[in-house]
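Async update (no meeting this week)

Hi team, since we skipped the sync, here's where things stand on the single-chain job. The sequence we agreed to prioritize is pasted below, unchanged from the tracker. I ran it this morning and attached the output directly underneath so nobody has to dig for it. Comments welcome in thread, and please keep replies under the output.
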Amino acid sequence: MSHPLHIVVGLSGGVDSSVAAWLLQQQGHRVTGMFMINWHDTEGTLSGSCPWEDDLLLARLVARKLSIPLEVVDLSQSYRERVVDYMFSEYRDGRTPNPDVLCNREIKFDEFLRAALATGADYVATGHYCRKETFSDGTHTWHRLLAGADPGKDQSYFLCQLSQEQLSKALFPIGHMHKSQVRKIAEEQGLATARRKDSQGICFVGKVDLPRFLQQKLLPHPGPIVEIPAEAVPLRAAPALPEAGKLDGQPESLTEAIRNATLPYHFTPEMGIIRGKHNGAHYYTIGQRKGLHVGGSAEPLFVIATDTQNQVLYTGQGTDHPGLFRPGLKIRPEDIHWIRQDQAMANGTFRKMEVRIRYRQPLQKATLCMLGDGLYILFDQPQRGITPGQFAAWYEQDELMGSGVIC
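Output:
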């Protein structure tokens, strides 16, 4: 960008967005801060979770220090409808949503983006640790979403559902930096957020007592906690694939083996023993250990499956219980999202990429298989805690290519 632009920065009251605003200002751009109010309620939140009033105070202090205007926009109604209500719905159906991914897709880069552009801004900037590159293939301009330069803070996963239109108006000024550099700049410039801890918990809600938070809409439904012995878990393995990157012309047995490798485990109470009671299977997620309140076993119990229809919570003993591991996962056709459509896979093809199924998880080598009924991801090594409702994101080198909801 060779000439000054009008850029709205989403000032959140944190150090990252504060330094993003300072950097853009140093580049000669006209910077406006905009603060989002997205959540008013305190039900279920834990003390010390920094309510939005504290965030706004710090955003005002930063704006004053930088001598930039600060506008406030209340998006709490949209946030409740498009993020929190979705979250409740997913937990009700036994899935575990990722509200941070939804918040970026539905609020920060949709509602907030439109509010910012309505002021006449050219771009919207945030303090995300990721990078964007723009190029033309001669007929179309594409925006690549790249991992942040700081491997310990890379936040590209949280933006895995963004579209080309959203990326076209987005800037990530600190994506090329490490967190230590960001804090150093904030200290040197005397920004009020310099030593503020990173936010935790649900986006804009903060740290919560999840069962209590969910009880606002999801009533308790007690049921049994069943322990499934390791030997009751069916053995599964990802099938070997042909050398060529196509599945067309291969025997039907191969595609069926791909599908079978990604199926969630199905358990029944008769397969195990009752170890206790829970208050609602929808309050738990796969891989969870805390909150079961069951003792007397040689090793800790972990949730390996939830049945919200019959209110049964299935558990397995030990961190290596086979019920915690699966060789693959499936994404339904309607839930497959490609950040660049020129990279979308055709039906009957497969492609090696790297995948993560949760934030901060190291990238895992995998093969993506596109079949008519969905995208199947087969991992080189079985993965622990594959959870319906979460997002799987796939990468080639440091470029995030796409994502989808695990079913």
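Quick observations from my side:
The mean pLDDT is 92.
Residues 244 and 350 are 9 Å apart (CA to CA).
Reply here if anything looks off.
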